[in-house]
Protein backbone atom coordinates (compact mmCIF):
# COMPACT_ATOMS: atom_id res chain seq x y z
CA UNK A 1 0.00 0.00 0.00
CA UNK A 2 1.65 3.23 -1.14
CA UNK A 3 1.07 6.72 0.23
CA UNK A 4 -1.43 8.36 -2.10
CA UNK A 5 -2.41 11.52 -0.22
CA UNK A 6 -0.41 13.85 2.01
CA UNK A 7 -2.10 16.48 4.16
CA UNK A 8 0.22 19.33 5.13
CA UNK A 9 -0.67 21.43 8.18
CA UNK A 10 0.86 24.48 9.80
CA UNK A 11 1.01 24.79 13.59
CA UNK A 12 -1.35 27.05 15.48
CA UNK A 13 -0.55 30.64 16.29
CA UNK A 14 2.14 31.82 18.70
CA UNK A 15 2.66 35.27 20.18
CA UNK A 16 5.59 35.84 17.82
CA UNK A 17 3.28 35.08 14.88
CA UNK A 18 0.92 37.73 16.17
CA UNK A 19 3.74 40.24 16.59
CA UNK A 20 5.24 39.58 13.16
CA UNK A 21 8.50 38.18 14.55
CA UNK A 22 10.26 35.41 12.66
CA UNK A 23 10.68 32.34 14.84
CA UNK A 24 13.06 29.97 13.13
CA UNK A 25 13.95 27.27 15.65
CA UNK A 26 12.89 29.15 18.79
CA UNK A 27 10.80 27.13 21.28
CA UNK A 28 7.72 29.35 20.98
CA UNK A 29 4.57 27.86 22.54
CA UNK A 30 1.08 28.18 21.09
CA UNK A 31 -0.89 31.06 22.50
CA UNK A 32 -4.52 30.67 23.56
CA UNK A 33 -5.76 31.54 20.07
CA UNK A 34 -3.34 29.02 18.55
CA UNK A 35 -4.67 26.29 20.80
CA UNK A 36 -8.20 27.10 19.66
CA UNK A 37 -7.06 26.87 16.03
CA UNK A 38 -5.45 23.49 16.73
CA UNK A 39 -8.64 22.22 18.38
CA UNK A 40 -10.58 23.10 15.23
CA UNK A 41 -7.91 21.37 13.17
CA UNK A 42 -8.28 18.29 15.40
CA UNK A 43 -12.01 18.18 14.64
CA UNK A 44 -11.14 18.20 10.94
CA UNK A 45 -8.46 15.50 10.91
CA UNK A 46 -10.56 12.88 12.67
CA UNK A 47 -12.68 12.55 9.51
CA UNK A 48 -10.04 12.32 6.79
CA UNK A 49 -8.51 8.90 7.38
CA UNK A 50 -4.98 9.83 8.44
CA UNK A 51 -2.95 6.65 9.07
CA UNK A 52 0.09 8.49 10.43
CA UNK A 53 1.02 11.99 11.53
CA UNK A 54 4.56 13.30 11.17
CA UNK A 55 5.52 16.53 12.88
CA UNK A 56 8.39 18.96 13.13
CA UNK A 57 10.02 18.75 16.54
CA UNK A 58 9.71 22.49 17.20
CA UNK A 59 7.56 23.32 20.22
CA UNK A 60 4.71 25.00 18.33
CA UNK A 61 4.40 21.98 16.03
CA UNK A 62 4.62 19.43 18.87
CA UNK A 63 1.91 21.25 20.83
CA UNK A 64 -0.34 21.31 17.76
CA UNK A 65 0.24 17.58 17.20
CA UNK A 66 -0.54 16.86 20.86
CA UNK A 67 -3.95 18.50 20.46
CA UNK A 68 -4.61 16.37 17.37
CA UNK A 69 -3.43 13.11 18.97
CA UNK A 70 -6.60 12.24 20.96
CA UNK A 71 -8.64 12.40 17.74
CA UNK A 72 -6.22 10.10 15.95
CA UNK A 73 -5.65 7.45 18.65
CA UNK A 74 -1.96 7.07 17.83
CA UNK A 75 1.17 9.02 18.67
CA UNK A 76 2.61 11.55 16.21
CA UNK A 77 6.04 10.75 14.81
CA UNK A 78 8.66 13.43 15.51
CA UNK A 79 10.78 14.31 12.50
CA UNK A 80 13.44 17.02 13.12
CA UNK A 81 14.05 17.47 9.38
CA UNK A 82 10.56 19.01 9.09
CA UNK A 83 11.69 22.04 11.12
CA UNK A 84 11.37 25.58 9.87
CA UNK A 85 14.43 27.25 8.36
CA UNK A 86 17.08 28.10 10.92
CA UNK A 87 17.30 31.89 10.61
CA UNK A 88 20.29 32.34 12.90
CA UNK A 89 20.97 35.97 13.81
CA UNK A 90 17.55 37.03 12.53
CA UNK A 91 15.57 34.90 14.96
CA UNK A 92 13.01 37.01 16.80
CA UNK A 93 13.27 39.98 14.45
CA UNK A 94 10.63 41.55 12.24
CA UNK A 95 11.34 41.97 8.53
CA UNK A 96 11.99 45.68 8.94
CA UNK A 97 14.43 45.00 11.79
CA UNK A 98 16.33 42.46 9.69
CA UNK A 99 16.74 44.99 6.91
CA UNK A 100 17.65 47.88 9.24
CA UNK A 101 20.02 46.03 11.57
CA UNK A 102 21.71 43.77 9.03
CA UNK A 103 21.53 45.69 5.72
CA UNK A 104 24.49 43.96 4.06
CA UNK A 105 23.26 40.47 4.86
CA UNK A 106 19.73 41.39 3.85
CA UNK A 107 20.90 42.61 0.44
CA UNK A 108 22.86 39.39 -0.02
CA UNK A 109 19.70 37.45 0.71
CA UNK A 110 17.72 39.40 -1.88
CA UNK A 111 20.47 38.86 -4.45
CA UNK A 112 20.61 35.10 -3.92
CA UNK A 113 17.49 33.78 -2.23
CA UNK A 114 18.36 30.09 -2.54
CA UNK A 115 22.06 29.93 -1.71
CA UNK A 116 22.47 32.71 0.86
CA UNK A 117 23.16 31.20 4.26
CA UNK A 118 21.89 33.39 7.08
CA UNK A 119 24.75 33.82 9.59
CA UNK A 120 24.45 31.05 12.21
CA UNK A 121 21.52 29.69 10.20
CA UNK A 122 20.64 27.92 6.95
CA UNK A 123 20.19 28.59 3.26
CA UNK A 124 17.07 27.51 1.38
CA UNK A 125 19.22 24.85 -0.30
CA UNK A 126 20.03 23.43 3.13
CA UNK A 127 16.34 23.29 3.97
CA UNK A 128 15.50 21.65 0.64
CA UNK A 129 18.01 18.86 1.15
CA UNK A 130 16.75 17.90 4.59
CA UNK A 131 13.03 18.21 3.91
CA UNK A 132 13.20 16.16 0.69
CA UNK A 133 15.08 13.46 2.57
CA UNK A 134 12.42 13.51 5.30
CA UNK A 135 9.60 13.29 2.77
CA UNK A 136 11.28 10.37 1.01
CA UNK A 137 11.49 8.54 4.34
CA UNK A 138 7.82 9.27 5.08
CA UNK A 139 6.90 7.58 1.80
CA UNK A 140 9.26 4.66 2.45
CA UNK A 141 7.69 3.99 5.86
CA UNK A 142 4.38 3.45 4.02
CA UNK A 143 2.07 3.85 7.00
CA UNK A 144 -1.06 4.02 4.84
CA UNK A 145 -2.67 5.76 1.90
CA UNK A 146 -3.16 9.08 3.72
CA UNK A 147 -0.61 10.66 6.03
CA UNK A 148 -0.34 14.07 7.68
CA UNK A 149 2.66 16.35 8.05
CA UNK A 150 2.87 19.32 10.43
CA UNK A 151 5.55 21.73 9.27
CA UNK A 152 6.24 25.41 8.62
CA UNK A 153 5.99 28.13 5.99
CA UNK A 154 9.42 28.03 4.35
CA UNK A 155 9.74 24.27 4.62
CA UNK A 156 6.33 23.67 3.07
CA UNK A 157 6.87 26.18 0.27
CA UNK A 158 10.13 24.50 -0.67
CA UNK A 159 8.67 21.00 -0.51
CA UNK A 160 5.59 21.87 -2.58
CA UNK A 161 7.70 23.52 -5.26
CA UNK A 162 9.97 20.48 -5.46
CA UNK A 163 7.14 17.95 -5.66
CA UNK A 164 4.87 19.81 -8.07
CA UNK A 165 6.22 21.68 -11.10
CA UNK A 166 5.25 25.36 -11.06
CA UNK A 167 3.15 24.66 -7.99
CA UNK A 168 3.33 28.05 -6.38
CA UNK A 169 5.63 30.89 -5.50
CA UNK A 170 6.65 31.83 -1.99
CA UNK A 171 3.82 34.35 -1.72
CA UNK A 172 1.32 31.48 -1.48
CA UNK A 173 -0.56 31.99 1.78
CA UNK A 174 -0.05 29.24 4.35
CA UNK A 175 -1.91 30.38 7.42
CA UNK A 176 -1.67 29.08 10.96
CA UNK A 177 -3.51 25.73 11.22
CA UNK A 178 -4.18 25.72 7.47
CA UNK A 179 -4.45 22.53 5.43
CA UNK A 180 -2.81 21.94 2.04
CA UNK A 181 -3.35 18.58 0.36
CA UNK A 182 -1.53 16.77 -2.45
CA UNK A 183 -2.38 13.45 -4.13
CA UNK A 184 -0.28 11.04 -6.16
CA UNK A 185 -1.73 10.02 -9.51
CA UNK A 186 -1.36 6.80 -11.46
CA UNK A 187 1.58 8.42 -13.26
CA UNK A 188 3.33 8.67 -9.86
CA UNK A 189 3.25 12.48 -10.07
CA UNK A 190 2.00 14.64 -7.21
CA UNK A 191 -0.88 17.04 -7.83
CA UNK A 192 -2.16 19.89 -5.70
CA UNK A 193 -5.73 19.44 -4.45
CA UNK A 194 -6.20 22.26 -1.93
CA UNK A 195 -4.01 25.07 -0.64
CA UNK A 196 -4.44 27.00 2.59
CA UNK A 197 -7.81 25.40 3.35
CA UNK A 198 -9.33 27.16 6.36
CA UNK A 199 -12.90 25.84 6.29
CA UNK A 200 -12.36 23.83 9.48
CA UNK A 201 -11.56 27.00 11.45
CA UNK A 202 -15.18 28.11 11.11
CA UNK A 203 -14.41 31.82 11.19
CA UNK A 204 -11.58 31.69 13.73
CA UNK A 205 -9.02 34.31 12.68
CA UNK A 206 -5.75 33.09 11.22
CA UNK A 207 -2.77 34.78 9.57
CA UNK A 208 -0.20 33.87 6.95
CA UNK A 209 3.44 34.84 7.38
CA UNK A 210 5.64 35.99 4.46
CA UNK A 211 8.89 34.41 3.44
CA UNK A 212 11.98 36.27 4.60
CA UNK A 213 12.78 38.85 1.94
CA UNK A 214 9.44 38.55 0.18
CA UNK A 215 7.50 41.47 1.65
CA UNK A 216 9.65 44.54 2.19
* Uncertain regions spanning at least 5 consecutive residues: none
CATH-defined topology: Rossmann fold
Number of domains: 1
Q: Which CATH C-level class is it?
A: Alpha Beta
> Which series of helices and strands comes N to C?
EHHEHEHHHEHEE
Offer a concise description of the structure.
With 216 residues, the chain is an alpha/beta fold. The chain has one domain: Phosphoglycerate mutase-like (Rossmann fold, 3-Layer(aba) Sandwich), CATH 3.40.50.
Structure explained in plain terms:
This protein is of the alpha/beta class. The protein has helices at 15-19, 32-45, 59-72, 95-101, 103-111, 124-141, 153-163; strands spanning 5-9, 52-55, 77-78, 146-150, 179-184, 190-197. A six-stranded mixed beta sheet has the order 3-2-4-1-5-6, with helices on one face. Helix 2 packs parallel to helix 3 (59-72) and helix 4 packs across helix 5. The longest helix has 18 residues, at 124-141. The mean pLDDT is 94.
Q: What are the main properties of this structure?
A:
6-stranded mixed sheet, 216 residues, 7 helices, Rossmann fold
